[in-house]
Records
---
Amino acid sequence: MLYSALIFGFISSLHCVGMCGPIAMMLPVDKDNSLKKWIQIATYQLGRVVAYASLGLLFGILGSGFFFAGFQQQLSIVVGIFMIIVAVVPEKKFATYNFSKPIYSIISKVKSKLGSQFKNKTFKSLFLIGLFNGYLPCGMVYVALFGAMAMNHVFLGSLYMILFGLGTIPLMAVVVNFLKSTSFTFYAKFQKAIPVLMIFMGILFIVRGFGLNIPYFSPSTMNLHIQSEVNCH
């Protein structure tokens, strides 16, 4: 299911353009030197991917716990259902619930650190801007983290989030660099496709959890390392 991380990353980039686009446009990059500018933007993107990788590592640890407990298939189904719910329920409805309240003080510190880095033009500052940006609350990242947890492995959880981060880069880079000369009418049209694509992703995770013995999509229970019943040959 690792390929789904890239797909979901691209889907999320349609949302990221609106949320993270303004931050990317404010990056203290050298506008007179194209090569240096792209290296600086790549440094910022690297920071975001590192943030996602570290979060994926934590959720990969949680997922491995479910794996050793024998709940890997159930977890995949739950993650798929969660994705579909997020796609169907209006975003404004979720906004009424402050899921970040328990860690509000930490988020405030992250925002403060993020703001202070815009004063510098060093590669370190650009990396830190990307890093702190990656730690800011985002609904799409939350969904991706559940996908990372469903990988049932520490390393694969981190790799899932790395691929998710890489998937967000292409569209963001294009839109941010051509934002001033491009209308947002196309963006509004693509936004409507996000729920449909998320439902498709959710179905993939659900099918995976059913263990239908479909190669690459839904491995059978026999192929899992831990099973609910003893399998004797």
---
Amino acid sequence: MNLNDAMSAFGWAVIIGSLAISAVFSVLAYHRPRLPYLYIAGGAVVVALVAASTVRADVPPVAAPLIALLGMTVAVFGGSPAAATALQLAMGGSAAPGAHGGILVAVRSDEPREPGIAPPRREVLRGGLTIGILERVGGAGSIIAGFPEGLAIVVAIKGVGRFTELEAPEARERFIIGTFASLTWACAAALTVHMAIR
């Protein structure tokens, strides 16, 4: 084995090992939200991305499916805690949580209210966890497949589906921050896979 082969083998080991570490800590962060889990998962993705950008050898046939599986695991599971962390940092606890995973916002009404009585509230952005998983699968899958235009389709579908719920400012802010954080995480993992198996 010459030096180039040894360097390539080391590079593939770093990519697979880093993605495996990131996948484990992404799943942990998803099931037991802890910032250190998310930081370790994110750091491992960065290491894998750097390694994927430097390895020049063709991907070993056995490694390609494993890299794709690990990358999708990181994209799907890590995006939810990344979005939750971004929302917590940006908005704190400013929005009351609803019973179905959304947030409670005041119902707009032109009728005068009695002083001291809170306006009625309704839940918006319900099902965000499930929608987030689907958007990350679609976004990461399109990048891994070499069709980044699919990411625009995913965002457009999500925007159209949520359009009527975005009249409240807190819903708009939550939608934008959560979507960007979730998709940024998924795209980083997917880009790592795309660069490694290109």
---
Amino acid sequence: MIKKSICDYDGLYRTNEGYFVKVVEYNNYDNVIVEIQDEHKYRVKTGIGNIKKGKVKNPYHRSVHNVGYMGVGEYKSRINYKLTKSYKFWKSMIQRCYDESFQRTHPEYIPCTVCEEWHNYQNFARWFDNNYYEIENRIMNLDKDILYKGNKIYSPNTCVFVPDNINLLFANHNTSRGNFPIGVTFDKKSSKYSAKMNVENKTTHIGMYDNCEDAFLAYKFEKEKYIKKVANKYKSQIPKNLYDALMRWNIEIDD
């Protein structure tokens, strides 16, 4: 059996993650059942060597930015030594919401959070399996605020996978457009307001206007029309809830 001298106290053994484990069943040197002493009381088979070295892993340990944890279930972070697609999406989502160094260069994510259910990777991976799809020659994005405009919470009810070209339709460029409404700039040469929008990575000029509001209304009309055009182009390839959100999208002057 394990020698008493390696115990921290009362037959408990400390892990490198900072938990205590208790031996509940000893079969042989390489087959020992231990119970992790936290609220989950998870039991795992391990060996004496791992116990001595503190290498018993707790699947409920919040190892990803002090928030995310693997949980217990069928979904793995790696298959054949390669990160799974679901794990990469999950880890990136957690990073956007809880990594302060990432948020220094992407401050738009500072108010964003992930629902408690998705702190557990198993729950996210199950949702991923039921909702992920691909479109040829497109990069898929996990979006939180097209189904519900202005939403800041990643959750099963608010998220949808979106091809990158559709996701880019909703970039508002807050940091570069100044104090003007979305789609509007001021042309000093003509002393008029210019309405422009991005179409397939190219700037399309809509028109010049005497006042800011008229320029915005022109942008709003053309942009909403274009969003509907793109929605209908991809209608057979995207989820219905995404299509419906695109068709009812309303651009407001304070977006």
---
Amino acid sequence: MTEQTADPGTGAAESTPDAAVVRDALGVGVAVGLSGFAFGVTSAGSGLTLPQTCALSLLVFTGASQFALVGALAAGGNPLTAAAGAFFLGVRNAFYGLRLSQLLALPRAVRPFAAQWVIDETTAVALAQPSRRGARIGFTVTGLTLYLLWNLATLLGALGAEAIGDTDAWGLDAAGPAVFLALLAPMLTTITERAVAALAVLLGLGLLPVLPAGVPVLVAASAAPVVLWARGRRADDAAEGPTREGER
């Protein structure tokens, strides 16, 4: 079944097969949802109990923040600092919500429940669709698939961690950061985004030996405003250059 609808963003008429949207959404949901196993292993290895691990996936449901929280706790960080780092990583979802609220235009009664699924993957799939109907289908299928698989994989990972014992001995303590980097890397498409990521890595790794666990993540968040400020200065200097030449 297809539809021809004016894109709410561009006004252009497009025709998109619903089956293609569902296929793409399922692909993203399955691929990312299975990585919840790594979170379950990492969380259990950091000392969280099975109920605590499952509660994080059920209630928080944003992989980067979950990995940041358990990573800081595993390193011996203060729980408040660890939670603060996870919170600031999750703030980006609020900005996704501002865009998706206009694109999806869901009924008010549905919005509080849909907000739980506003994450990187659902946003990417929804924004890739040329029509509102396609965006709604992509958002719903991706969110449902990812939520179910992520939580199931978290449970299996936590149970598996208890069965294998010391996760550090298996090198599974690196599974969380590896999965996060694998998800993040394809999203860095511009020079500015890559510069922010590079500076954040330098700040995080450089301050790791001298600051308490969890604090380097908070400091690394300053990479974005620093890079944007530097970019603005360059743009101002470039604009002033021709003006000064003209005054001569």
